[in-house]
Design a protein that fits this description.
This protein is 82% helix and 0% strand. α2 packs antiparallel against α3. The chain has one domain. The protein has 77 residues and is an all-alpha fold.
Length: 77
C-alpha cells in the first residue's frame, strides 16, 4: 500500500507518535484479513457484508493517503 510512502510509513510506525495514523493503519490491516477470510466462505449474505467491509477499508485507505500526503509535505518544509 502506497509504495511511494514506504519510508514515511516505516518511520511513522517506528516512532509511534502519530496515533491517528497508527489506528487507521491497524484497522485497515484488520479489515484486509477479515475480508480475505470471509472471501473463502463467500455465500449469499456474506457477499453484502464483504462489500460493506471493502467500502470501509477504502475509506480508511483514503484517509491514510491524506495523512501521508500531509505528513510528507510537513517533512519537506
Amino acid at each position: 500500500m502506497f509504495p511511494e510512502y514506504r519510508d514515511l510509513i516505516t518511520r511513522l510506525k517506528a516512532e509511534g507518535s502519530h496515533q491517528r495514523f497508527l489506528h487507521l493503519f491497524e484497522k485497515h490491516n484488520e479489515l484486509d484479513h477479515q475480508i480475505a477470510s470471509m472471501g473463502v466462505h463467500d455465500a449469499g449474505g456474506i457477499h453484502t457484508e464483504i462489500e460493506t467491509l471493502k467500502k470501509e477499508k477504502l475509506s480508511i485507505k483514503d484517509e491514510l493517503y491524506a495523512l501521508l500526503r500531509q505528513e510528507a509535505a510537513f517533512v519537506v518544509k
